[in-house]
């Protein structure tokens, strides 16, 4: 056990032969954008350098870190030839280590060293797990040959080098192999940080944990300790390189309390998909927990597909307005043609539209960013720019839109709710186009030499949530026969299985009633006691019942205590949302075709009758009693007044409470409303106000007259006065919006030589505008959002030292 182990980084898919030959644990981390061979691959976010053997102390553990390998298929079984090859390699390695030769043999001698360094990022260190190879490739054998033990190799590891071309062939070979000697476990996690940071692609971070060994199980304890120590070291290393490390065990639960916090803060980071594959078979690991594991690791992630089924986060941006231009009419025989600069077009609006043909938000997993087009710039001959193209986001019926984070309406407040088919609402309006110089023509200034920039379009992150709109929702414990009922009353074909949680996502079906009417029925995933706390599939899907007007409560006739199950589900509904338990519902006792169920029926019926409820007994399989349920549900529906949520939604989507209106109001804030923040240490004054910010942004600083106009606005809005009252002194820095200025007490700075930096500047003597007011601002630079200037956080960023002074 004293053999030195090393942490080797493996290029891409070469990780697989590596595993079979040397590395004991393989951490393969890849990002989907790389997989798609997009230029926007993530490495820019990723800080750490490629861990080389130099970085890792000799006493480290055998860990392989590979990047790029995507979906892992079953490992190719080792042939006898390969076995002997490995043996030879191990011998060779032993010899080499005895000779203290540092260069390790390469697995693929013909391969070229990879030039592309491993682009690994958020490093998820996973609890290693031994997976024992199965004795025979017996298709019927259970997966129980799995030991939850890490293993320690006494064979040293190889650094495998391979080039991209080689990888492809390796991958193909592996794909072809179906019979696996090794089981593998794939853990696929979605990292939201990366997703948000990334510009146009969400990033799938895939962590595959592989292990394959036939080492002695007696070594379990020692091996475990060593593996644990190695992982701790691994984490330390990563921390030193400021990579975030999360330890997640293979079943998806987090290992320690602290980590739990980390991840639950950001639930996107939870493990998204867990599956285990043995040979050709794929098992859902969710089913295979024993109780102790359950207690130790109560928190578990929800598969990514399920999470994105009804929740999504998208970025929207309205188009910027086009810029106005300065132009003059020049034509033969038309002296003094006057200004003819057109205005810019407005930016495109962002709309959301409900599309009844969509039934999930899954499409927003891949497309996250929505931007409307920008307006065209104005042109000469008084031509105005065209408006930007609008952006319409199609969402399924029943989508609720909230603003993410602290925004205009505050976190969590509903901006829009789309409940009518084809309903289209304005979400963000595009920025106003900047005015051209024609617009600034006055009696005093007939040849204005200034134009405005277009207004920037608003942008925000939105949280979309889908609440299925159905007339009737079928709820009940897992395996009660909910999906079976839906399949017999409608044309829907939900998955039906004799095991709990067959249904992971809600299914919708349309039930014809007579010749004219229909009713939409939703089959929801099974509910367990504690669902409101997240047990089972948790409350993830309970929200869909909020939009169902009538509920059908399915009772599993085969359950030992149907009464208790009934009460448990009722309680869950009440705990989740008291309004849910007030919804009208029907109780259907299923599986009456089975004699045991039929025996339990009289008791159950009497129990409910005491509560004043008349249950219906049915057999979904034989369709007995099914029409009773449909008819009763329909008559209940008819007796209800038209759904109230639609009325509420109407109020929210438009008019006074509309989001577009809120943003419009915010954006048209008067320039007189501002706040001055002083930083004495750096002699900096910051003038903050939405109106001023917008005005500054729209000012085209190229033109001298724009500057004089700005000065006038500062005077008119009272900024100059307020600054003087607060004691601004010569040479102080004043920040307004994105611009930084220097304060001067006199107007001398308007000297002609200074003005040469601007277009359209004239001699002060010629100037029609006088600067009567003392106290002028002198532009020195523009500041970009987020800069910290002398302790003040400016509203803008990055510092652009563009001194305009001589
Ligand atoms: N004998 C009999 N079996 C039924 C009846 N209804 C459903 N089953 C069986 O019960 C099992 C579960 O049925 P599902 O419809 O998948 O149950 P579910 O309530 O949708 O279960 P989850 O989706 O896991 O929540 C299947 O094997 C069905 O064949 C019935 O009326 N009689
Ligand atoms: Mg089902």
Structure description:
This protein is α/β, with parallel strands linked by helices. It folds into 4 domains: 7-301, no CATH class; 302-466, Distorted Sandwich (Spo0b-associated Gtp-binding Protein, Chain: A), CATH 2.70.210; 472-646, P-loop containing nucleotide triphosphate hydrolases (Rossmann fold, 3-Layer(aba) Sandwich), CATH 3.40.50; 669-800, 2-Layer Sandwich (GMP Synthetase, Chain A, domain 3), CATH 3.30.300.350. Helix content is 26%, strand content 21%. A 7-stranded mixed sheet has the order 1-3-2-8-7-10-11. It has a 6-stranded mixed sheet with strand order 21-22-20-23-24-25, sandwiched between helices. The protein has a 6-stranded mixed sheet with strand order 26-27-28-29-30-33. The chain starts with 6 loop residues before the first strand and ends in a 6-residue tail after the last strand. The model is unreliable at 1-78, 100-221, 244-300, 644-656, 762-776 and 781-806 (pLDDT under 50). Bound molecules: guanosine-5'-triphosphate (GTP) and magnesium ion (MG).
């Amino acid at each position: 056990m004293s053999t030195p182990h090393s942490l080797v980084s493996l290029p891409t898919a070469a990780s697989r032969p590596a595993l079979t030959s040397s590395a004991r644990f393989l951490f393969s981390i890849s990002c989907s954008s790389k997989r798609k061979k997009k230029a926007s691959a993530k490495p820019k976010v990723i800080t750490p350098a490629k861990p080389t053997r130099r970085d890792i102390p000799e006493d480290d553990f055998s860990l392989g870190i590979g990047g790029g390998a995507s979906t892992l298929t079953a490992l190719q079984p080792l042939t006898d030839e390969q076995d002997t090859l490995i043996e030879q390699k191990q011998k060779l390695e032993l010899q080499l280590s005895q000779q203290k030769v540092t260069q390790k043999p390469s697995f693929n001698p013909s391969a070229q060293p990879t030039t592309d360094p491993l682009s690994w990022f958020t490093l998820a260190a996973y609890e290693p797990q031994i997976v024992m190879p199965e004795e025979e490739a017996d298709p019927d054998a259970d997966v129980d040959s799995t030991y939850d033990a890490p293993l320690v190799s006494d064979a040293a590891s190889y650094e495998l080098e391979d080039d991209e071309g080689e990888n492809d062939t390796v991958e193909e070979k592996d794909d072809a192999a179906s019979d696996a000697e090794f089981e593998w476990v794939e853990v696929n996690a979605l990292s939201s940080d990366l997703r948000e940071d990334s510009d146009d692609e969400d990033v799938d971070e895939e962590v595959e944990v592989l292990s394959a060994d036939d080492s002695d199980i007696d070594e379990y304890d020692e091996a475990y300790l060593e593996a644990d120590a190695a992982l701790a070291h691994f984490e330390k290393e990563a921390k030193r390189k400021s990579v975030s490390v999360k330890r997640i065990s293979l079943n998806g639960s987090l290992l320690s309390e602290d980590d739990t916090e980390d991840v639950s803060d950001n639930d996107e980071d939870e493990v998204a998909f867990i599956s285990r594959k043995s040979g050709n078979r794929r098992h859902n690991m969710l089913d295979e927990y024993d109780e102790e594991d359950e207690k130790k690791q109560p928190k578990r992630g929800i598969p990514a597909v399920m999470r994105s089924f009804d929740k999504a986060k998208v970025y929207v941006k309205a188009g910027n307005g086009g810029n106005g231009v300065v132009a003059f009419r020049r034509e033969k025989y038309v002296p003094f043609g006057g200004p003819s600069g057109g205005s810019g077009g407005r930016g495109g609006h962002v709309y959301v539209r409900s599309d009844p043909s969509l039934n999930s938000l899954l499409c927003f997993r891949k497309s996250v960013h929505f931007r409307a087009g920008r307006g065209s710039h104005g042109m000469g001959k008084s031509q105005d720019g065209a408006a930007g193209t609008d952006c319409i986001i199609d969402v399924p019926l029943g989508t609720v839109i909230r603003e993410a984070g602290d925004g205009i309406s505050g976190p969590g407040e509903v901006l829009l709710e789309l409940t009518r088919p084809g309903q289209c609402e304005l979400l963000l309006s595009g920025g106003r186009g900047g005015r051209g110089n024609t617009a600034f023509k006055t009696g005093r200034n007939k040849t204005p030499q200034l134009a405005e920039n277009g207004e920037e379009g608003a942008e925000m992150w939105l949280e979309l949530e889908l609440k299925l709109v159905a007339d009737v929702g079928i709820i009940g414990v897992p395996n009660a026969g909910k999906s079976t009922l839906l399949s017999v009353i409608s044309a829907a074909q939900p998955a039906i299985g004799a095991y709990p949680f067959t249904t992971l996502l809600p299914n919708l079906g349309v039930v014809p009633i007579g010749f004219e009417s229909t009713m939409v029925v939703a089959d929801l995933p099974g509910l367990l006691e504690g669902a409101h706390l997240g047990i089972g599939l948790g409350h993830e899907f309970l929200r869909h019942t909020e939009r169902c007007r009538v509920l059908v409560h399915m009772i599993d006739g085969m359950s030992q205590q149907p009464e208790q199950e009934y009460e448990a589900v009722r309680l869950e509904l009440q705990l989740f949302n008291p309004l849910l338990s007030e919804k009208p519902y029907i109780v259907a006792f299923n599986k009456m075709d089975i004699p045991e169920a039929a025996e339990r029926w009289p008791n159950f019926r009497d129990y409910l009758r005491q509560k004043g409820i008349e249950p219906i007994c049915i057999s979904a399989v034989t369709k007995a009693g099914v029409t009773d349920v449909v008819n009763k549900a329909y008559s209940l529906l008819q007796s209800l007044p038209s759904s109230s949520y639609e009325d509420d939604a109407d109020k929210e989507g438009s008019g006074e409470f509309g989001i577009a209106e809120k943003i419009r109001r915010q954006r048209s804030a008067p320039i007189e409303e501002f706040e001055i923040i002083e930083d004495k240490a750096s002699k900096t004054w910051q003038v903050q106000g939405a109106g001023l910010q917008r005005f500054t942004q729209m000012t085209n600083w190229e033109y001298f007259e724009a500057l004089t106009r700005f000065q006038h606005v500062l005077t008119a809005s009272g900024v100059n006065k307020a600054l003087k009252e607060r004691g601004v002194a010569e040479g102080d820095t004043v920040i307004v919006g994105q611009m930084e200025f220097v304060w001067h007490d006199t107007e001398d700075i308007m000297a002609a030589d200074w003005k040469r930096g601007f277009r359209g500047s004239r001699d002060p003597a010629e100037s029609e505008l006088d600067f009567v007011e003392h106290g002028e601002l002198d532009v020195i630079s523009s500041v970009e959002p987020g800069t910290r200037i002398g302790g003040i956080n400016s509203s803008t960023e990055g510092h652009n030292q563009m001194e305009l002074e001589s």
